[in-house]
Amino acid sequence: MKRSQAGWIGGTAAAVLVAAGAITYAVAEDGNSGVEPPAADSADAGFARDMAVHHQQAVEMSYIVRDRTDDTEVRRLAYDVAQTQANQRGMLLGWLTLWALPKVSADGPMTWMDMGGMASGEDGALMPGMATNSDLEKLGKLNGKQAEIFYLQLMTDHHKGGIHMAEGCVERCSVGVEKDLAQGMVDAQESEIQLMADLLKERGAKAR
Question: C-alpha angle with apex 40: 38 to 42, nearest 5 degrees?
Fold first, then answer.
């Protein structure tokens, strides 16, 4: 099995776990079982909000590069990232709806990890690892090998930031299925980082 395929499968499995967790909470609420949803300032809610934003940028970058190169490997990776993270993002936002919690917060990103303000937020980089608006504009102007390299570099940074947040959820979140989702993200994105390192090496480049 190729590493990109493994990452896609890992992400899909995590999404299934999230769906199962959503069903569990819906049943619990209907049955008045006493199960309480997380609080608005909980790690569970904070992770869901922040990772939804983080994932959205990964989807955006992946669709940009698919229009900038004909390379099969990079386009396949971009498709896998876009589909997996769009799916997971929908589940995270669905959880917030299920918990009757707002999808935005006055607290800064990563406050739930006691790391609020770690990213300056300047030029659109709201959390560590996120690309700036300038980066996205540059990616949209590159073509071929240059676009492939820059995308792989940006996505490597993005995955590293995402892994850091997911590890934070594994440590701090209280909803078991959300912790499983976060661990699935860690496993899949670590695999994809290695794949991207190989793809960069093939192109005579490396991560930033």
Answer: 60
